[in-house]
Specification:
Helix content is 80%, strand content 0%. The protein is mostly helical and 419 residues long.
């Protein structure tokens, strides 16, 4: 038990402790409403293509702010940047989503929400810069599990939808999201302190404007390209984000519009997947992620592929529909948990700690650049057939399997050997 996630959770100190212990508030705020954003947009009157376009706008906004996130994080400090941009990216958009009445409300919120390109960088720096390397994969497993804790409260969403219908219920959840997210920002700011690397980077960047600092990205790109492990971690993360983007935007649509499962029942299926992800993260994945990470990566991609394949072959009536849908969620839960943890752990293990913020900025920018067309493409495909976005996901997942096999055949990567 001394090597378990429970042991890691109890022994965390400093910034890792503050980040991990406040993370459930993110799950209880945003994870209760964001999974239903696509069906909420449809209920307001948007089309599948509109939904896909909004996803792409959000991704492009994230790409821009990811590009600026390195200099912003270095100048402002990890702690301050996280607080300010969490409010811009989550609290304010929640208010806009709450009052949304047309396409332009969602368009505006998508742009603001894209500022999380900064906080994603700054928060991860705050999380890992003072952490022990041997704890990194376990910390990310706990973080992913914390994000899934909303599963315990998801039946509240089902009850609200059944009593109030979809739109009024989700509006209430956006208000809840704003309040709890603001609480998270305040607690994390008070419980954390600037990292040692963050203090040094603030001193080094004092008196330099953000756009001047972006001029140093040429050196950072060379540093990334000289590290095969860093390049590999960016590719894996990009592929995982494409799958997550398509799945989060169109899973609710295929289940409610093709399989005709009542909207009030959607939260119950997400409860099931979240509980599975937590179980996998605490009891299965830690046993797989010791040493070389080739096998857990292959298992993650393969499991997600099977889950997506089952989803598009689910019949549209009868008990078999529910059985196959639940079975697809078993594989999705494992794939989601594994790829979420590994896509973050890989970069944390390979990144140069002295240039973490700027390397992470380039990483997120590349991911957003690669991911940005897929929301729109997914929307166009969904208008043709609700199955097609998931067929696209299957192609991406097979690509991940091939790239993983090629990388570990050519590279002797033991970066996680002692985690």
């Amino acid at each position: 038990m001394s090597d378990s996630l429970f042991s890691t959770l109890k022994t965390l100190k400093g910034n890792p402790r503050a980040c991990v212990y406040t993370e459930p508030l993110w799950g209880l705020s945003m994870n209760l409403c964001i999974p239903y954003l696509s069906v909420y947009m449809l209920a307001i009157g948007l089309s599948d293509t509109n939904v896909g376009f909004i996803v792409t706008i959000n991704t492009l906004s994230q790409m821009l702010f990811s590009f600026l996130s390195g200099p912003i994080t270095d100048k402002m400090g990890r702690r301050k940047a996280t607080a300010i941009f969490d409010i811009l990216a989550w609290c304010i958009p929640c208010i806009i989503w709450w009052r949304a009445e047309s396409f332009w409300f969602f368009f505006t919120a998508a742009i603001l929400n894209g500022t999380n390109g900064v906080t994603t960088n700054s928060w991860h720096c705050l999380l890992v810069e003072d952490a022990e390397k041997k704890q990194i994969t376990k910390i990310y497993s706990i973080i992913i599990a914390c994000g899934q804790l909303c599963a315990v409260f998801a039946p509240i969403t089902a009850i609200l939808i059944s009593k109030l219908t979809l739109v009024p219920a989700i509006r209430i959840l956006f208000i809840n999201g704003c309040v709890l997210m603001l609480l998270k920002v305040i607690i994390l700011y008070l419980a954390s302190k600037e990292t040692s690397i963050g203090i040094r980077r603030q001193q080094e960047t004092a008196g330099k404007d953000i756009f001047h600092l972006t001029g140093g990205y040429g050196k950072i790109i060379k540093m990334i390209l000289s590290s095969p492990g860093t390049v590999f971690s960016i590719i894996i993360a990009a592929l995982a984000w494409i799958v997550f983007t398509i799945n989060s935007a169109f899973w609710q649509i295929i289940v409610s519009k093709k399989l005709m499962i009542p909207e009030a029942a959607l939260p119950l299926f997400l409860v099931f997947r979240s509980i599975l992800a937590i179980v996998f993260l605490f009891f299965i994945i830690p046993k797989l992620s010791k040493g070389i990470l080739k096998m857990p990566l292959l298992l993650g991609f393969s499991a997600y592929f099977i889950g997506q394949c089952l989803l598009i072959t689910v019949p549209i009536d009868g008990m078999l529909m529910y059985l196959l849908l639940c079975l697809s969620l078993v594989f999705d839960g494992f794939g989601l948990a594994t790829l979420s943890m590994l896509s973050e752990s890989l970069i944390a293990l390979h990144v140069n700690p002295d240039e973490r913020a700027r390397i992470m900025a380039i990483r997120y920018m590349i991911i957003m650049l690669v991911t940005s067309p897929f929301g729109w493409i997914g929307g166009i495909l969904s208008d043709i057939s609700r199955n097609l976005p998931f067929v696209l996901n299957m192609v991406v997942l097979v690509t991940g399997i091939v790239i993983t096999l090629v990388y570990y055949r050519k590279s002797n990567d033991h970066s996680a050997e002692h985690t």
